[in-house]
From TrEMBL:
Residue ranges occupied by any Histidine kinase domain in the UniProt entry: 202-443
Any one Pfam family match given in the protein's UniProt record, by short name: PAS
Protein name (record): histidine kinase
SMART domains, per database record: HATPase_c, HisKA, PAS
Organism (species): Parathalassolituus penaei
């Protein structure tokens, strides 16, 4: 070592032999401990994998639907027990076969199309036919793609449900729906006829008045006709002037002639009244849908009120109605709604010492874009809070058993909705129930003015 060279104090000092062996043994212990940890982790993961596999196999075995896993070319990789039982072959014989080979001839092209489409989108409820152990079996097929971690298509999962069971279920469901719809139509018509039946007595009395009037007038006209025939025969036979004057006075022809105009006018008025009643009744009882026509809401309300009150003379009525309110719709259907509202109000006040019914109507807004409204208010006990939200539900009624079907308000609510209106029932501030009907107004027809009128204006 030269005088200028200095020893390197940073180099590790050489270890003795014992220290080197201790370091090696320590490293080996650490590596062994790591190997033991890895072994434990591997065993735990193997147990989890085995548990997951057992769970997966139990799920596959429990499935009643056919489940087939294929590769991207359609070769079978795995099937469940339902598939084995349907086809009648064990899984070991099915693995590696093309799924298309299991289909009926007509379904093979459909399945090829499904396997091609599934690369881009899932296939849902495709009907195919599988060759089962007992013959062709229709299936509703669902296909979904399988991808690897890189997003590459590696296979297809095919699930099929026996279409025979679905078809049977759909047929039973359709049959039940048809029966339910038919029963609903019958109940609706039954409720309508029940409402009509409640009006029979009033209608009969209403028809009896004009018919009796016409009948009496026709008897009077018959008597006058007999007198006139007798007088004209005397004229034709050449009777003297004095004899004709005496005969005219005896037959009271002057009075008969004076009564002819009033008898004819009264008869025509009675016939017109009968026609109006029959027309209203026909519209009310008709089940056919016709085009919407103008109607008078006040006339409809007055007619319904008049018919119902024939059976309830004790009920006092307060009318707050205008002369007319023009609406557009089916007069017979609106008549049915008003009849139901008035009938419900009358039923609610039967036990009152002084039953009273108030009928109001008017228009909210102008006669072009306004709303017609009609209110029926009674002085009954009102409606309980728990019943108010259910009044328009089918078959709900607050009446005793046998006195109501629970369809009147439900049908009325539907009719008003079809007319673009609204129907509400609340408790009045005076204690009874208040039903409010709102309907679109019938706008007046615009009349084009002439040039002459424009100049004058």
């Amino acid at each position: 070592m030269t005088p200028t060279e200095q020893p390197d104090n940073h180099l590790p000092a050489p270890r003795s032999g014992d220290e080197a062996w201790l370091s090696v043994i320590q490293k080996m212990d650490e590596a062994y401990a790591d190997l033991v940890d890895y072994q434990v982790q591997v065993e735990e993961q193997n147990a989890q994998l085995e548990e997951a596999r057992t769970f997966f196999d139990s799920v596959l075995a429990a499935m009643s639907d056919v489940l087939i896993a294929c590769d991207h070319e359609g070769r079978i990789q795995q099937v469940n027990r339902a598939c084995e039982e349907l086809i009648g072959r064990p899984a070991s014989e099915l693995l590696g076969l093309s799924l298309i080979q299991l289909c009926e001839q007509r379904s093979q092209q459909i399945l090829r199309s499904c396997l091609s489409r599934v690369r881009h989108e899932p296939v849902r409820d495709q009907e195919i036919t599988i060759l089962g152990v007992s013959g062709p079996v229709p299936l509703a097929l669902n296909c979904s793609p399988r991808f690897n971690q890189r997003g590459r298509l590696i296979g297809v999962v095919v699930a099929g449900r026996l279409l025979g069971e679905l078809q049977t279920a759909f047929k039973e469901l359709n049959a039940a729906h048809a029966e339910l719809k038919l029963a609903q139509d019958r109940l609706v018509q039954s409720e309508k006829m029940a409402s009509l039946g409640r009006l029979v007595a009033g209608v009969a009395h209403e028809l009896n008045n004009p018919i009796s009037f016409v009948y009496g007038n026709m008897h009077a006209l018959q008597r006058y006709t007999t007198r006139l025939v007798e007088y004209f025969e005397a004229v034709q036979s050449g009777a003297s002037r004095e004899a004709l004057q005496e005969l005219r006075a005896r037959l009271r022809l002057d009075k008969a002639i004076a009564d002819l105009d009033s008898l004819v006018e009264g008869t025509l008025e009675g016939a017109d009244r009968v026609r109006e009643i029959v027309n209203d009744l026909r519209q009310f009882s008709s089940t056919q849908r016709s085009e919407k026509l103008p109607y008078d809401l006040v006339h409809v309300a007055q007619s319904a009120l008049h018919w119902i009150l024939k059976e309830h003379p004790r009920v006092q009525v307060v009318r707050e109605l205008p002369v007319s309110l023009a609406g557009l719709g089916h007069a017979g259907q609106i008549h049915q709604v008003v009849v139901n509202l008035i009938q419900n109000a009358v039923d609610a006040i039967r036990q009152q010492s002084e039953p009273c019914l108030t009928l109001r109507a008017g228009i909210q807004g102008d006669h072009r874009n306004g709303v017609l409204w009609l209110e029926v208010e009674d002085n009954g006990p009102g409606i309980s809070p728990q019943d108010l939200p259910h009044l328009f539900e089918p078959f709900f009624t607050t009446k005793p058993p046998g006195q109501g079907t629970g369809l009147g308000l439900s049908i009325s609510y539907g009719i008003v909705g079809e007319h673009g209106g609204s129907l509400t029932i609340t408790n009045s501030e005076r204690g009874g129930a208040l039903a409010r009907l709102a309907l679109p107004v019938h706008p007046p027809v615009a009349v084009a003015s002439t040039g002459e009128n424009d100049e004058q204006g």
